[in-house]
Write a structure and sequence with these properties.
The complex is a heterodimer of chains A (about 300) and B (about 280). Chain A is built from twelve helices and 15 strands. With about 300 residues, chain A is of the alpha/beta class. Chain A is elongated and about 75 Å long. Chain B has a domain at about 5-180 and about 265-275. Helix content of chain B is about 85%, strand content about 0%. In chain B, helix 2 runs parallel beside helix 5 (about 110-140) and helix 7 packs across helix 8 (about 210-230). Chain B is globular and about 65 Å long. The two termini of chain B are about 30 Å apart. Classes of the chains: A alpha/beta (about 300), B mainly alpha (about 280). The interface between A and B is medium-sized, with 31 and 28 residues.
């Protein structure tokens, strides 16, 4: 549904997006992750034809955007981080304007439905400048859904929202997925995206570092795993013995806990338990701590870019 | 996509944006009413002077007494519209509302044309107010409507078109409201100053001017004839007024034609610049 080929954007010698090859399949939720300034919004603006790529091509619905510009645009809905509303308008007037713009049939009914859905029907005649950030976000989402688009592009849709707002947006995304929509979400709030995305692409400094299913990506990223061992008594022999194991990278003591960093090539718990037992250690508990995507992402972008750049 | 389908999408975008802009101008804004009020107030002062003259001397030596007040009215309202046009694109860029529009089915040409059509419609609606005012004045004072008044009112639409398209052109160059205002005021005042200076120097006898002023006059004359005359929308206004007052049909036609050409070129340049510079702030 969304495909880019060698997409590149340079601004006065600075490369914001470099040779980006994306492939978002029909009906999936694709998370486009990266820290601020990674090139996510630039990519979205290129997908929408708002920014002209320096190099490369964008295909939406298997067509070049400029091949069928107006019809393609009518099949896309976009929600940005900030809504940039015509604030002198009321919620109803705003949606009415865009329903006219997208030539929505039975627009009155559709606007009513969306205002009800967003919980804004009661304030439909209130000016948008009087709306809170969350309410404005809902108006933006309603605007993006007005024409029932096949592709939904969400740029940082949950940034700045309260927990309730985040939940509502997440519910909306899942609802849209159930309706068969293809959803492209850019975000830096990884823990939120992790819960809803089918596939994820990680971008940093304009380069796509990885693109895979959530589980695979986590596996690739988590080359290290932490095992917490609760011991009755921690001795220096136990620490020494564990440190000497070839799959152990580091052993640290946190009160009565030993945190052992191990490689993720296989399950090493058996060997750890037998090593501790052979040094007369009594294990009270053992817990594996997998890196969340957020942790993994921080690792990628700030400490270990080479991990993914090398594949 | 075939051309027919494309044009139909463009027409829809122009229609919807124009509708919104008109609503915004007449329902949410007070600027247009203020411009009408100021235009008519100044016209009233001019007309009052005429009436005072009649009262003092018992007569007024003037063929079309309503023409000059109308010219001033058209000039002020066009100036207001040019200022509004110069803000229209940059305001949307500054507030980033243009980005939301461009998420949808719109292109640069439809956007600029919608802004232009809106401003022209605003001028036409303002003209209705002016006509009502001048009808009232004619009824109260016995100043008659002449054919040249009708010609001037028609011509003023084309001249307003020059001002509006010039404003749009300036607006396409900037991304902030403040820069647009500064650019518009400095350029229009610059044009106005050169035009005034040219008028003063060219009407002064050469023997009264010292050598540096003669050089200055020559330089300004060349600059005016070859550059300002064609770039400044004010000079289209002046040429038009001259054509109407002299009653030369050929000049009148040329004035309308050149205004149309000027407007078309300015709109095309605005579209190209907007495309080239992009809509992102």
């Amino acid at each position: 549904m969304i495909r880019t080929k060698g997409l590149t954007k340079c601004f006065n010698g600075f490369t914001a997006v470099k040779d980006l090859n994306l492939n978002v399949r029909k009906g999936e939720i694709y998370g486009f992750l990266g820290p601020n300034g990674a090139g996510k919004t630039t990519t979205i603006l290129m997908l929408l034809g708002i920014l002209r790529p320096t190099k490369g091509e964008v295909y939406l619905f298997e067509k070049s955007l400029y091949e069928d510009y107006f019809n393609i645009k009518r099949r896309i809905g976009v929600v940005s981080e900030k809504q940039y509303l015509y604030e002198e308008m009321t919620a109803w007037e705003y949606l009415d304007f865009f329903s006219d713009f997208y030539q929505v049939k039975n627009s009155k009914k559709r606007i009513e439905e969306l205002l009800e859905w967003a919980g804004l029907y009661g304030v439909k005649d209130k000016k948008l400048k009087q709306f809170s950030r969350g309410m404005q976000q809902k108006v933006g989402i309603a605007r993006a859904l007005l024409h029932n688009p096949e592709i939904l592009i969400l740029d940082e849709p949950i940034s700045g929202l309260d927990p309730m707002g985040i939940k509502e947006v997440r519910d909306m995304i899942e609802e849209q997925k159930q309706l068969g929509k293809t959803i492209f979400i850019s975000s830096h709030l990884l823990s939120e995206v992790e819960k809803i995305c089918d596939r994820v692409g990680i971008v940093n400094k304009g380069v796509l570092l990885a693109e895979d299913k959530m589980e695979n990506l986590k596996m690739r990223l988590s080359r290290e795993m932490e095992i917490e061992i609760e011991l009755k008594k921690i001795t220096s022999e136990i620490i020494k013995a564990l440190s000497s194991l070839d799959f152990v990278n580091k052993v640290t003591q946190e009160k009565n806990l030993l945190v052992v960093r191990v490689k993720t090539d296989k399950d090493h718990r058996d060997e750890i338990v037998s090593t501790v037992s052979s040094h007369k250690g009594v294990i009270l508990g053992l817990k594996m701590r997998e890196m969340s995507l957020e942790e993994a992402f921080v690792t990628i972008t700030h400490r270990n870019v080479s991990l993914l750049a090398g594949g | 996509m075939n051309i027919k389908e494309r044009v139909s999408h463009q027409i829809n975008a122009v229609r919807v944006i124009t509708k919104r802009e008109l609503k915004s101008t007449f329902i949410y804004g007070i600027g247009v009413y203020l411009a009408i009020f100021i235009s008519l107030l100044i016209s009233s002062f001019i007309l009052k002077n005429y009436l005072d003259g009649i009262k003092d001397k018992g007569m007024l030596m003037m063929t079309d007494p309503l023409n000059y007040p109308l010219y001033i009215t058209a000039l002020i309202s066009s100036f207001y519209l040019a200022l509004m046009s110069s803000l229209s694109i940059s305001r949307e860029k500054d507030h980033r509302t243009i980005e939301v529009l461009f998420y949808g089915p719109i292109d640069h040409a439809s956007f600029v044309i919608a802004k232009y059509i809106n401003d022209i419609l605003v001028y036409l609606i303002m003209t209705l107010f002016f006509l009502a005012y001048f009808f009232l004045i004619s009824f109260l004072t016995n100043f008659t409507f002449s054919f040249s008044f009708v010609k001037l009112i028609i011509l003023s639409i084309f001249l307003a078109s020059c001002m509006i398209s010039f404003g749009l052109f300036l607006s396409s160059l900037t991304t902030r409201i403040r820069s647009s205002i500064i650019l518009f005021l400095s350029i229009t005042l610059g044009f106005f100053a050169i035009q005034m200076l040219y008028g003063i120097l060219s009407n002064t006898k050469p023997e009264l001017l010292s050598t540096p002023f003669l050089y200055l006059r020559n330089i300004i004359e060349v600059f005016y004839r070859w550059c300002i005359q064609w770039i400044s929308p004010f000079s289209y206004f002046d040429r038009g007024l001259k054509a109407v007052s002299l009653g030369i049909y050929k000049e009148y036609g040329i004035s309308i034609g050149s205004s149309l050409l000027y407007s078309a070129l300015m709109i095309i340049f605005s579209i190209l610049i907007l495309k080239k510079k992009g809509i992102v702030k």
